[in-house]
Amino acid sequence: MESEIASEKDGTKEAAVVAKYKRGAKTSLKGIVNKKVKRQLVEKEVLFEEAAVTASKVEQWLLPSEGGYLEAEGLEDTRHFSQESIVKEVDVMSARKAFDLSLPDLGPYVQDYNRSGRYLVLAGRKGHLAIMDWKQARLIMELQVRETVRDVKYLHNELFFAVAQKKYVYIYDKKGVEIHCLRDHISPLKLEFLPHHFLLASVDKGGVLRYQDTSTGHMVAQHRTHLGRSGVMCMNPYNSVMGLGHSNGSVTMWSPNMSTPLATILCQRGPVTAVAFEQAGLQMVTGGMDGKVKVWDVRKLVPLHTYFAPTTPKSLDISQKGLLAVASGSKIEIWRDALTSKQVKPYMTHRLAKAAQAQDLSFCPYEDVLAVGHSTGLSSLLVPGSGEPNFDTYVANPFETVKQRREAEVHSLLDKLPSELIVLDPTQVGAVQRSGKENVLAKSSLRREANIANAVAAGKPVAVKHKTKGRDKPSKRHRKKFTNVITATRAKIAEQSAAKAKASQVKPVSEDNDSIPRALARFKRKG
């Protein structure tokens, strides 16, 4: 009996997985007379069913792990769960991922994970650099540059990382040896790396955004924002567009192909302090000096939700599963499903020890871990459900060997994308470009349809502004005044004329009159 119940449950689960990949209801064959078309539709439905079953089997075989979240019982609340209580309940390997590094003399610290999430690089404001294999708690390299360090970022793999120091950007290898000094990047404040394009982007004190190709060393672009100092920058992982936060409350989106921003959004009532993008690139989160955290729809450039932080949000980050982390002073808040719907309370909260001020947040890829760089060192927090449980070795392999790393580096160089493909809408790349005449005709037809619809909806004359320099003639004023009325009636008149023309078509002459010329047919006797 128990085996039958278990088999029924497995069958129900498999059916649910198959239904997830189906393309909706089957096509109705009623009313289709053509046997050939009916047979083709039946064959397509069979192919769709087989594709759904195959996709469900692939999910069952290749995606065996499932992410889990904290679940409260009774009157409990997950936001009151402390890190100590979570560490006590998890296994030994997971408990080792939660730790604190006390470095009070060289902070505040910023950090960055490599793409696989295995290695961590951290940098202190007073020149301290370190690389560690954080899962094994093994220090790989430690260096003191004796200069102000503002940001650090891994390049295409864990062998190289870039550091934004006081005057220039420096590139170091895994052993701490200085490889390059990028003197074109003057007084950098923030760094970002575009892995698919091998571009290193930096923004400096003067508000100049620079792109440099790390594979060839060529300076791709230099753009002046004309909006003053900007220390807030984040890359959209969907289209590689760079988002910059400014002191006037706006966020501008940049591409190396244009000297002007692709889009400008007025996000906050004060200076923007943090920007973060979702993995799919559909939502953007901004924080400002006004203490508000806003979620934006990047496709429509409109706000979706607004949250209030305890103090000014210093840093934001979004995990692979959509969890939002907000750092405000010494308090860390993690919100679940905050991007898709308005939430009332956070999923988790954490207070840093000794009132340390948070500086930077970074979710670890493929792990339920959040790294917090603060004024007294670095803290690693357990956040259940934040990381993607299944990884693709063609994208990032946390267990890759030296040979696999070399192969991946060669493949990434061969698959390198040109910077000209960085656009706001990547779906336009590869589409057929219309000619200039076709574009003009398409725009004019759309404009005409929109004008007709608006005129029909309004159905009344519109007040026209008076113009000068010969453009305010009585005839033009009269024509503009009744433009909507004329446009509204024009469609009806066109329909009526078409109907009359169709009704007044000359009937074809019968076969008996074929021998008589058409001009003399009217003289033929009837009957």
UniProtKB/TrEMBL annotation:
Main location: nucleus
Gene3D superfamilies from the UniProt entry: YVTN repeat-like/Quinoprotein amine dehydrogenase
Organism encoding this protein: Sphagnum troendelagicum
Domain BING4 C-terminal: 346-426
Assigned keywords, A-Z: Nucleus, Repeat, WD repeat
Compositionally biased region (Low complexity): 496-507
Annotated region (Disordered), positions in chain: 496-527
Intervals holding WD repeats: 265-306
Protein name: BING4 C-terminal domain-containing protein
Localization (cell): Nucleus, Nucleolus
Pfam families, sorted: BING4CT, WD40
SMART domains, A to Z: BING4CT, WD40
